[in-house]
Amino acid sequence: MTILLIEDEPLIARQLLKLVQQLEPSATIEGPLTSVQAVIDYLNVHRPDLIIADIQLADGVSFDAFGQLNLNVPIIFTTAYDEYAIRAFKLNSIDYLLKPIDPDELQTALAKYHRWQPSGTDFADQFKTFLSQLNGQSATPHYKRRFMAHQLRQIVSVSQELVACFIRDELIYLYTMTGQRLVTDYKTLDELDELADPAHFFRATRQCLVHLDAVAGYRPHHTGKVQVLLHPPNDQFELMVSKEKAAQFRQWFEG
């Protein structure tokens, strides 16, 4: 049995690989693949028995890859979006798993695969139906609702409501509303800027992505810049929005 893992977040990829190795010790595990193009290149040559696939990848969504291929492989989807086409997932795939992935839920999904596998289910037809159901939704961006970070020796999930800001200081740090500073595995703030909902997050500077609920107000500066007042106050850094982005910030903050 060959299982292909598709996941572009290193923290989750390592966790998922470890879980699958524990639950399917005799399986050959390929990946994790991290991009749409890598998935297309792999599936043009190989046919795994099962795919465990994240939705949002570095260069698009995994549906983009599957839609280009005549795929007849069962898929377990993983997603951080608890409202992202859940009904369609349940109808047209083996299962879906919300991040952070629960070991018991993964075990249940794998057991479901083993029950269905002898039945010869035509997953290609199912997936075509699934993609057609998503056509009306594909133009709507889906943003992350939860972000993975390191806390001591654990990997934790932080909901967007609890994120005060992301700060780049060699590494990308996640600051919570309670003042905790957690390390993330994100490589750049540009990556996070694409994943975070712009209704809630604003790229205040090249080093900072701030959450709306963390902003208590702002103070105009004589240079035309805007000083962002954080709630609760954070003495570790002063947040200044450039003159060029000041109007955009005020519009975002004032709704």
Automatic annotation (TrEMBL):
Gene Ontology MF: a single term: DNA binding
The entry's keywords: DNA-binding, Phosphoprotein
This protein's record includes keyword Phosphoprotein: yes
InterPro entries named in the record: CheY-like_superfamily, LytTR_DNA-bd_dom, Sig_transdc_resp-reg_receiver, WalR-like
Domain Response regulatory: 2-114
Keyword Metal-binding: no
Pfam families per the UniProt record, alphabetical: LytTR, Response_reg
Modified residues (4-aspartylphosphate): D54
Signal peptide: none
PANTHER family on file: REGULATOR OF RPOS, RESPONSE REGULATOR RECEIVER
Name of the featured protein: DNA-binding LytR/AlgR family response regulator
